[in-house]
Every structure is written in structure tokens, then in C-alpha cells.
Design goal:
By secondary structure, the chain is mainly α. It has four helices and no strands. The relative contact order is 0.12.
């Protein structure tokens, strides 16, 4: 999560000078690149992938939250709250689901 702090900070700074939709696309593509690095059979690349994933995930989350706030004229606090609710429910389900899958299939499913 230390990388996430820096990703959030950079996203906030970049959003002052660049279109947020473009930033969201870039951060999302870099999240996917970091995710792919997590599949590497090399500890160094896995660590780099985890840092890259976390940095860009939090950057994308910052920009997405900003976009929700920008595009709503009425009920702004409700819209942002619904975004955050969806974010936390989704991450809880995916986080728990991943653990259940890996528990039942074995943690070595990706190592061949």
C-alpha cells in the first residue's frame, strides 16, 4: 500500500493538467501490465508487478472517484458514496473469492 500512496498523489497532480478519462485509461492499462508481471516465474518481476499494480490501481481509483464527482450535478455526495460502496463491496468479494479459489485449488496452481 505504500506504492498506492504515491499513485494517489501522482494521479491528483496529473489530473490538474491532463484529461481524467485519458489518465484513467493509462492507469488501467498499467494495472493490467502489473497484473501480468505477477504471473512471472521470477521473484524480482513479481515484486515489480505487485508494486506497479498497487501504484496504478490506487491512481485509477483516485481518478475514477474524481470522475464520479465531476459528472454529477445533483446528489454529488450520494453518487460518491455509491461509488465507494461499490468499490469496497467489489474488492471484498474479489479478495475473499480469490482466497477461497486458491485454498481449494492449491496455492501452487500458477507454478508449473
Amino acid at each position: 500500500y505504500v506504492f498506492g500512496i504515491f499513485g494517489t498523489t501522482l494521479a491528483g497532480r496529473l489530473s490538474r493538467t491532463h484529461p481524467p478519462t485519458r489518465l484513467l485509461l493509462i492507469f488501467t492499462m498499467l494495472v493490467i501490465a502489473g497484473l501480468l508481471l505477477l504471473l512471472a516465474n521470477n521473484l524480482f518481476l513479481t515484486i515489480v508487478g505487485l508494486g506497479m499494480f498497487t501504484f496504478n490501481f490506487f491512481g485509477a481509483h483516485t481518478i475514477a472517484s474524481q470522475l464520479v464527482s465531476m459528472h454529477v450535478s445533483r446528489g454529488k455526495s450520494t453518487a460518491v458514496s455509491l461509488y465507494l460502496l461499490s468499490y469496497y463491496v467489489g474488492s471484498s468479494i474479489i479478495g475473499s473469492g480469490t482466497g477461497v479459489i486458491l485454498h481449494h485449488t492449491g496455492w501452487f496452481i500458477f507454478i508449473q
